[in-house]
Amino acid sequence: MTRAVPIELKSLRWSVGNLTILHDLSLTIAAGEVVALLGPSGCGKSTLLKLLAGLLQPSAGELWIGDRCVASARHCDAPEQRHLGMVFQDYALWPHMTVAQNVAFPLRMRGVSKSTARLQADAALAQVALADFGDRKPALLSGGQQQRVALARALVAKPAILLFDEPLSNLDRDLRETLVHTMADLLRAAGITAVYVTHDREEASTLADRIVHLAQGRIVSITHLKGNPHAISRVS
Ligand SMILES: Nc1ncnc2c1ncn2[C@@H]1O[C@H](COP(=O)(O)OP(=O)(O)OP(=O)(O)O)[C@@H](O)[C@H]1O
């Protein structure tokens, strides 16, 4: 597994015209820490995730990943330069590929041979308890299974950071409860730095070392769940 890295937001702002969506957020996420972003619809959770991913550029402030400033108003590293994985609400699996081909895809893009990529994809599928599903097409899997495939695809590339955008919100309650425990165990085992956007307080409490509560584009409070001694937090 790639060494986990810290993330630091230094007065990070994002505006559209005169409208400021995120107001000078400052926060340090320790290497290997799992942080949940929790807040009502429209508070800026997805916007912050997009800034972390490199899909949006800050209007002011700086974003640091490890020992590198990856984004400010002056420059913005592309998503592929940030060594991160993303898991979305809609799974985003390619329907024409088998499950194993979907999981192997990030490795094939990096030039890993077909046979090695398949071996690593099978190992990642075993991690999410889908070892026997590699040769099926995604459409033949349930929503929960498809989301586990998406998680395997994110893990197989051994990213330094994993970003989750409400990954369980399309699933029914029982399945959400099971999968959130699977994800929590996998993230702990991988020791990966993760940022997890959710509306669901219970989901956040199960997964996160800290819950960062957002409202109207500001960090309004932070709940510590594990007392991680490496975590430094500031409320802006
Ligand atoms: N490109 C844009 N132009 C103008 N306003 C935007 C743009 N992108 C986001 N917003 C506004 O920024 C605010 C925050 O949006 P964001 O999608 O980050 O919220 P969210 O907390 O993720 O909401 P939800 O939980 O409903 O997904 C919203 O009021 C949204 O309308």
UniProtKB/TrEMBL annotation:
<dbReference type="GO" id="GO:0015408">
    <property type="term" value="F:ABC-type ferric iron transporter activity"/>
</dbReference>
<dbReference type="InterPro" id="IPR027417">
    <property type="entry name" value="P-loop_NTPase"/>
</dbReference>
<dbReference type="InterPro" id="IPR003439">
    <property type="entry name" value="ABC_transporter-like_ATP-bd"/>
</dbReference>
<dbReference type="Pfam" id="PF00005">
    <property type="entry name" value="ABC_tran"/>
</dbReference>
<feature type="domain" description="ABC transporter">
    <location>
        <begin position="7"/>
        <end position="235"/>
    </location>
</feature>
<keyword id="KW-0813">Transport</keyword>
<dbReference type="GO" id="GO:0005524">
    <property type="term" value="F:ATP binding"/>
</dbReference>
<keyword id="KW-0410">Iron transport</keyword>
<keyword id="KW-0997">Cell inner membrane</keyword>
<keyword id="KW-0547">Nucleotide-binding</keyword>
<comment type="similarity">
    <text>Belongs to the ABC transporter superfamily. Drug exporter-2 (TC 3.A.1.117) family.</text>
</comment>
<keyword id="KW-0067">ATP-binding</keyword>
<dbReference type="InterPro" id="IPR017871">
    <property type="entry name" value="ABC_transporter-like_CS"/>
</dbReference>
<dbReference type="GO" id="GO:0015697">
    <property type="term" value="P:quaternary ammonium group transport"/>
</dbReference>
<dbReference type="GO" id="GO:0016020">
    <property type="term" value="C:membrane"/>
</dbReference>
<protein>
    <submittedName>
        <fullName>ABC transporter substrate-binding protein</fullName>
    </submittedName>
</protein>
<keyword id="KW-0472">Membrane</keyword>
<keyword id="KW-0406">Ion transport</keyword>
<keyword id="KW-0408">Iron</keyword>
<dbReference type="InterPro" id="IPR003593">
    <property type="entry name" value="AAA+_ATPase"/>
</dbReference>
<dbReference type="InterPro" id="IPR050093">
    <property type="entry name" value="ABC_SmlMolc_Importer"/>
</dbReference>
<dbReference type="InterPro" id="IPR015853">
    <property type="entry name" value="ABC_transpr_FbpC"/>
</dbReference>
<dbReference type="GO" id="GO:0016887">
    <property type="term" value="F:ATP hydrolysis activity"/>
</dbReference>
<keyword id="KW-1003">Cell membrane</keyword>
<keyword id="KW-1278">Translocase</keyword>
